[in-house]
Design a protein that fits this description.
103 residues, alpha+beta, 2 helices, STM4215-like
Amino acid sequence: MTEKEIKQLLNSSGIPFRYHHWKTRKRPPFGVYLFPESKNLMADGIVYYKSNALQIELYTEEKKPETEEALENVLDQAGFFYDKTEDYLQSEGLYQVTYEMEM
């Protein structure tokens, strides 16, 4: 799946997404996605199988299970397996829900 396809998939959840960051302050809910590292498999001294980690961050002002569910439905329908963590960013006054997966 290409970066463009991932962006289209995430935006189909009804939540606006951008790669890595927004240039201007955005009103929640919104999200970002990035590829923070590779998870390549090496064999015989070469990259045998290429894989990238995909990190999706969802930001909301309040805990909104229905917003998370909208995003998770899109990820589930696309066949992604993900792990999910949550944090509250005191300095921003926002909840951050992070989904991590491999592609």
